Amino acid sequence: IIPAKTTWEELEKVVKKKIDISGLKNGLEVLTGRDYANAEKQARINGEAMPMIQYSSTFQAALAAKALNVSTAEVKDLPIAEYMSVTLQVSRFLFSDTLQGMGMES
User: In this predicted model, what pLDDT tens digit does every residue of 51-95 receive, in sequence order?
Assistant: First the structure.
């Protein structure tokens, strides 16, 4: 129960849950093709129309959520800088072989 005189700042602290993203890479490494397909399905149901789904931040957020064992909503509720960091990490993971071939990833 939240007291009636709760400020917006106090409410945000209650609502926003901190996500530990330190295990994102390890979590991504154990995902399967089924997890990928389910994340794509979730993104498409939510209106994602991008033909190359791996470029979609909605799709990347769904994959990150699965890898971190949290809801997609929790990932999307991150502060924008942290959200962008998470989706960028997923993107780099998905394209790591391509980046290595171009000499852009070690």
Answer: 999 999 999 999 999 999 999 999 999 999 999 999 999 999 999
- Which DSSP category does 34 fall into? H
Rounded to 5 degrees, what are φ and ψ at 105?
Answer: -135, 140
What are the DSSP calls for 27-67, one per residue?
A: HHHT--HHHHHHHHHHHHHTT---SSGGG-HHHHHHHHHHH
Q: Are 75 and 83 in contact (CB under 8 A)?
A: yes
Helix axes of 57-68 and 33-45: crossing angle, nearest 10 degrees:
130
Pick left, alpha or beta for residue 47 (phi over 0 → left; psi -120 to 50 → alpha; otherwise beta): left
Q: Which two tokens stand for residue 65?
A: 């959520």
The radius of gyration of the chain from alpha carbons, rounded to an integer in Å, stands at: 16
Q: Which of 13, 1, 10, 24 has its CA nearest to residue 75?
A: 24
Cut 0.85: pTM above it:
no
